[in-house]
Amino acid sequence: MNKQELFDRIKGKVIVSCQAVPGEPLYVEEKSIMYLMARAAKQAGTPAIRTSSIRDVVAIKEETGLPVIGLIKVKYEGFESYITPTMKEVDELVEAGSDVIALDCTNRKRGDGKSVNEFITEVRQKYPDAILMADISTYEEGINAWKLGVDIVGTTMSGYTEYSPKTDGPDYELVKKLAETVDIPIIGEGKIHSPEQAVEMLKTGAFAVVVGGAITRPLEIAQRFIKAVEG
Description:
Distance between the termini: 47 Å
Structural class: alpha/beta
Order of helices and strands: HEHEHEHEHEHEHEHEHH
Number of strands: 8
Oligomer: single chain
Helix content: 40-55%
Shape: globular
Radius of gyration: 17 Å
Largest sheet: 8 strands, parallel, barrel
Strand order of the largest sheet: 1-2-3-4-5-6-7-8
Strand content: 5-15%
């Protein structure tokens, strides 16, 4: 699937994020079960899946046949970023057939001494035809990623860096500002807890939205209900 075909497929839609990492209730060491979440998301009508880890990229592509936004979450000493932070993870995602590669494009500390600009430039040089999604937390990071030649900007990290606004809900303002400035798709992601918020995100200017925790993380969903009821 080429870039334009992907864009036509996801425009105005909800991409479901199906992820489970070690320590979470749905992470099973012996075998991934995220393909079952992806099966449900496909039946619901999602045009694509976002997932973490090579095993889930492979399993979900085999199960659904849908395009996959792949990433690898890993913590390295000296790195504050943890979403596909080095070329090793990029290589693995390419090898696994990830249709889109999501990368941390925040300005946080990198343990290899490279700037995010240097890293993204190296990735683009090595994989000129790869569809790259920049996970950012601020307007400035989004503009920087756009200038570096990424194909998609996602607001994934808004509220998850120490210098980005902390809110209980989606960062509509960030999506609006970026959508008004850049000529590539802006994907609204992060803290979208309800269908109404997803609709509002699209009205704000998002090309598409990614929803994960509100659909595929039962612990988070249960906690939200219990917190609301018990105060």
